[in-house]
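Justification of resources, computational component.

The compute hours requested in this renewal are based largely on the per-chain cost of generating structure records like the one below. Each record pairs the submitted sequence with a full structure-token output. That output is archived, and it is also reused by downstream analysis tasks.
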Amino acid sequence: MHQFDVESLVAGRWRNGGGATREIVSWPVGGEEFEWRASVADIDRDGPFSAFPGVDRTFTLVAGDGVRLSAPRLFDRTARAGEPLAFPGDLELAAELRGGACRAFNIMVRRGRRAARVDRVTGPVVPPGGHAGVFYVLDGRWRAGAGQSPLAAGQGLWWDEGDEAPGGAFAPLSPGAVALWADVATVS
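The structure output for this chain reads:
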């Protein structure tokens, strides 16, 4: 397992200047083409989203008042805090902020190779063996399996299917604890 703190990750500015991305992991690490990727994006203003052909995306707003994602006649949804929103990365989307800057947790998987499910959790989570995943704390403190230091807001762990799975469950240690759990499985 690999621990991270979002604030210590390097922020790469978007080419269009509308935001920055802090990459948690791009698997395989150092690979030319990712099979799956996790990141946190800070969106500063309205503008286009980059298209990722052949990729399925799950976008979860973690701070801010909402983001409308739209492609004329194809897609029109508003992302709200804590509600995972899945869509094909092939779409050329425009983002419209609903009240100023925001932050989002993103999971992208190469279609046909990996599949992802993202859940907002407030209780114990036991990741299945043989799956990759990301556990990202939004609020409170969490026990992160046997032998791990507690995690606080903005911190988390990621692992790939070949890594040792987290020992035991992720469990809240404080009232009101909230996290996002992304389960990433290989497609047979």
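The chain has no helices and 17 strands. The first strand starts at residue 2 and ends at 5.
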